[in-house]
Amino acid sequence: MLKRIETAISIIAAVLLFLLMIITFIDVIGRNFFNRPLNGAAELTELMLASTVFLMLPLIAIRQKHIVVDLLDFVGNRIFKAAQTVIGVAVGVFLFGMMAWRLFILAESTARYNDLTPTLKIPIAPLVYGMSLFSGLTAIAFVGLAVTMFRSGSKRPVGQADAPGELAARSPNT
């Protein structure tokens, strides 16, 4: 079931990116060759970018494909690595939980004032509700990672490597 949801979300994100590419192409051609940019292209770009980013956040958390900066990679202590992972998961839960809460408040406000995009008059509230929902799902994904990590007795989430080349050597997906 989770694999189907993951596939559906990936397809939706790919379609949004393709539409974004088409809109940008039409806008650039219209602007540069015909002096007629696509009306509302900037608004559609903003809406599709926000949709794509927030749509993919839970998948990135589940797949553990975050951007990672290894500042303290030289510390080889397993207890330190376990603490680092726990802190990372806790920060993820906290930040995405806060984002979900604040975005929900913003969505309520935009719905109450019936905020629309300036040119195309597209309602903004559904997008912000979606951003809040997917931020909340990302926080839940981090909680799921923590539960999985503690149930398995692992010092790090499943799939996270000790060394840069270790995951590639173990992973059947690469």
UniProtKB/TrEMBL annotation:
Residues 20-151 form the Tripartite ATP-independent periplasmic transporters DctQ component domain. The chain crosses the membrane at residues 7-29, 41-62, 82-104, 124-147. Residues 155-174 are annotated as: Disordered. Keywords: Cell inner membrane, Cell membrane, Membrane, Transmembrane, Transmembrane helix, Transport. It is a multi-pass membrane protein. InterPro entries: DctQ, TRAP_DctQ. It is found in: Cell inner membrane. The complex comprises the extracytoplasmic solute receptor protein and the two transmembrane proteins. Part of the tripartite ATP-independent periplasmic (TRAP) transport system. PANTHER family: 2,3-DIKETO-L-GULONATE TRAP TRANSPORTER SMALL PERMEASE PROTEIN YIAM (PTHR35011). Belongs to the TRAP transporter small permease family. This is TRAP transporter small permease protein.
